[in-house]
Amino acid sequence: MTFWPLLAIAAAVIAAYLFSSRRALALRVSGRGYFHSLPSYHGLLAAISALMAGLAAFILLRQFEAFSALAIAAVAGTVAVVAAALPATKISAAFRARPVFEAIVLGILIASSVVAILTTVGIFASVVFESLVFFREINVFSFLFGSHWAPTGTPPAFGFIPLLVGTFLITFIAILVAAPLGLFSAVYMAEYATSNVRSVAKPLLEMLAGIPTVVLGFFAALTVAPLIRNWGESIGLSVASESALAAGLVMGMMIVPLISSLSDDIINAVPQSLRDGSYAMGATKSETIKRVVLPAALPGIVSAIMLAISRAVGETMIVVMAAGLAANLSLNPLDAVTTITVQIATLLVGDQEFDSAKTLSAFALGLVLFFFTLALNYVALRIVQKYKQQYD
Amino acid sequence: MTDTPYQKLLAKRYASERRFRAYGAIALILTSVFLLYLLVDIVRKGWPAFVEHRATFDVTLDASQIDKANPAATDYLVIVKDAWRSQFPDLNSRTDKKQLNALLSQNAAESLKQQVIDNPGLIGQTVRADVLLSDDADLYFKGLSQETDTTLLDRVREKIEITRNMSWRLLNNGDSREPELAGLRGAIAGSLLTVAVALALGLPLGIAAAIYLEQFAPKNRWTDVIEVNINNLAAVPSIIFGLLGLAMFLNLFGMPRSAPLVGGLVLALLVLPTIIIASRAALRAVPPSIKEAALGVGASHQQAVFHHVLPLALPGILTGAILGMARAFGETAPLLMIGMVAFIADVPQSFTDAATVLPVQIYLWSDLPELGFQSKTAAAIMVLITILFLLNGFAIYLRKKFERRW
Amino acid sequence: MKRILLTASLLALVATPALAGRDQIRIVGSSTVYPFTTTVAEAFGKASGKTPIVESTGTGGGMKLFCAGVGEAHPDFTNASRQIKKSEFEDCAKNGVTDIVEIMVGFDGLTLAQSKEAKEFALTKQQIFAALAKEIPDKDGKLVANPNMMWSDVDSSLPAIKIEVLGPPPTSGTRDSFAELVLEKGAEKLESLAALKKTDAKAFEKVWKSVREDGAYVEAGENDNLIVQKLQGNPNALGIFGFSFLEENANVVRGLSVEGKAPSYEAVADGSYKVARPLFIYAKKQHVDVIPGMKEFIAEYVSVKALGEDGYLGEKGLVTLPPAELERVRAEAAELKVLTAAGLK
Prior knowledge:
The complex is a heterotrimer of chains A (392), B (406) and C (345).
Chain A: H1 3-29, H2 39-62, H3 69-89, H4 97-137, H5 140-145, E1 149-150, E2 157-158, H6 161-192, H7 195-210, H8 213-234, H9 244-269, H10 272-280, H11 285-314, H12 317-322, H13 340-349, H14 357-387
Antiparallel strand pairs in A: 1-2
Helix pairs in contact in A: 1-2, 1-3, 2-3, 2-4, 4-14, 6-9, 6-11, 7-9, 8-9, 9-11, 10-11, 11-14, 13-14
Chain B: H1 5-46, E1 51-60, H2 76-86, H3 94-101, H4 110-118, E2 126-132, H5 135-142, H6 151-159, E3 161-166, H7 169-172, H8 185-216, H9 221-235, H10 238-252, H11 260-285, H12 288-296, H13 301-330, H14 333-337, E4 342-343, H15 358-366, H16 372-402
Antiparallel strand pairs in B: 1-2, 1-3
Helix pairs in contact in B: 1-16, 8-11, 8-13, 9-11, 10-11, 11-13, 12-13, 13-16, 15-16
Chain C: H1 2-15, E1 26-29, H2 34-48, E2 53-55, H3 59-66, E3 77-80, H4 86-94, E4 100-115, H5 125-132, E5 135-137, E6 143-145, H6 151-154, E7 165-167, H7 173-188, H8 191-199, H9 201-209, E8 217-219, H10 224-233, E9 238-242, H11 243-248, E10 253-255, H12 265-269, E11 276-284, H13 294-302, H14 304-307, H15 312-315, H16 323-334
Parallel strand pairs in C: 1-2, 1-3, 7-8, 7-9
Antiparallel strand pairs in C: 3-11, 4-9, 4-10, 4-11, 5-6
């Protein structure tokens, strides 16, 4: 159903490029004046108009099941060829093909970055209606500032604070683990390690990013949590079987590769001339790194850490398995806490009836989390902008 | 030589240099050790899933039980089970028979059936059949059994020839509720289809957005909004992306449920921020002098970016792609809402067939009561990591090829 | 001529009922019933060639999808670890899903289990209530926050180990059933609470439904295997999970007797082990004539081969219905008896 039409369009696109660029070249060689645009731009312009028109025709025709694949292929191919002929007939010395083509490309680039906005709008729309229904039943302020969370209790309590604190606590532990490990790993890989070590270590770390979080969750629950409990009890602390510490530690390991891999690239991209300048002044390697390389790489490193924090805030499985679901309002890393995302997931896949306040609270949580991280990211952006410098 | 203050200072600086270097090495080693520990643990648990036990005994292919004209139409399981029970003539109470039957797999007669179809001349003869044991028996012979009463299994071990074989069922079969038969073929195909869609969409979109934001966008409030918004998307819990997929792709656009196409679309949106952020960092890291030099000799802005900046930023962009792909491969929660957390026995053939993916299969298997699924779960993780490693390897090869230092 | 053909085909397109096309059964719903429904689906698929797709969405999410409407895009069955609620039934009716067939397929025994390394003890429902309820009556019958930290505080005959019970979260149907089957019954046995039930049923409900949140009851997530493995690492803890997990892990965990009855297949099936809840599947009768194989699938589910005493679902850990009950279920399933709102909560 899709193969033949796409093949026809592809053929038309290639033909359009070849024909138009050759024609422009031939005209230029034959000495019809000074050409504004290179031949390839004439070709690209023809090709891109063929592609856009062909795809549009294809998508339009697909709506009707009456047409066979071959019929669609024929029509879409013809449309593409006609669309390519429009710029092709205009090929001349004065025709400014490049600005036209570049305007189209810029349009595509802008459209791509708008996708992210649309996604946000879509996410907002898909949680906001249910949230409104929820907030009709539950007061917004008692939700935002309540300190007790028990959506299925009798009577239910929807206090958001314990979840917020739990999220904070676990994310904080995770970053405490991941930031030094990730940064030092990155510095070592970029500045000290031989290229052999680096070529092994970097993919190894990236593999860590690919281990499904279910697996890390099992590891946190069955290996790390009992370890912490035994250790804690041996020095006389009371440790919950599911502690925020276990979840936070393992989550920290999960986001190490995000920080290390991205930071490594950024550090590598700091121009060698900066280092050479520093060495020339007699600085040791570590002094160069601390005073020259890292400050130059700071904006990139901050955005890597922000990405890691975002990932930790959004993570679900590890916390479900290792930290449990008890909504305790506590800052003690040895207590059991729960996070916003965990509550969202368990409420949505639970056995409760779906349109009750219990399940709807999941949407409200999603909405609040959304604004919450928005504020966080805004602050981070301001910081990055303040310290952003371009080195050469 | 006397210790001048300068030498003391120098010694201190060198010591600090060594310490700093050691921190880096320790961090790297610590992370690697953690990873290796995890991997070894997984391999140790998953290894048994690649081994299966078979029993070999005589089966009489009675001509009266098999239709010679159409040997495929016979229920060979009945024949095999009869022959199996006849090996233990003293066990003939109803419970004994039931227990004996339970030691054979549902698929026990599969190879015998093929043998007879290939060679109908065997009908009427007695053949040595190689029969797959059930999960309970298999676990016992692997030494992983939880059975409290093993007298029957001990008898089987004495009486019958049991062979231990490598098994590639895990890679060749679709999903099943019998642990000894369950395989990952459907999940692997589903994962590849889904991630293919996600990358085909997410990578170009992400790179294009990054190029615009980093190189062309005017620095104003509007681009700040986009920037904050992209960072924010990375923090949206993945299950919410599932809600978006349900509302938009399924309900609004009427796309099929459980399809890799929809899963890929959702995952593309999910990995978009990761790819954009990494690509932007990579583009930002290319020294501006490169672009300025290109502009200086008369290149247009786009020519400077596409011909000079982008190729130099490619290694970093590939890192972003790898991290994004790794995330897409390991994601479970958003697929729940669009129907991909499901038991699907058939292997998906196209982007619109019902499918599930590897991490979902891992999640589902880890929640089943049968013990045999525990090693299957670990083995599925091994498969997932291997696939990831192979794909990573390719991307890393590309990255190495393009990487350079200023 | 061509135009006529085109118009005709367009008309045909509009006229074709939305249901045409899908030839595979789609099932959603509870993760508790999932292991059993998938087993039936596989057996059915082997016989018919089209294995139904079984999603694991949770009972609530399953009902939401199931009730969303009639047509190809909506599932044909939903699994449920509790009976359909009245509100869900009404939601269904509102969306045109009026003919629902309810099939009770068996029981899920809920077990309280401990590591085999731990010292065995037995409990009564009253003791479990006294250990897990958020508030219990003191000597004068006044409700106070649960002071019991050790099992020996609950009853001096019990061992002196810390109360720590790993169980499902409140969003889980397992937890609801546990509260109804154990905590409510346990609470009723206390005089002061029995009196409260008569005077103020709402307040009584609050007492037995509220489980303590001070760490004695650990909300451990929905994965029962995880609870089993956590018990192995922590011999002092008890865990609450489904009977099939106890059966599969009989070597490492042991089920505690409740009210003098140890959880065994026989005890659950004959009803003497009282902590068991019914499991259901719901079928959309409006799909029966459109989606091929629905009747056959129901027949396979309630067949003797599957649900009978020695059926394959029994081997998978489902506690099957008593013979008389099974006969009734089979008859109702065969005639596709439509569910009415009467009797729903």
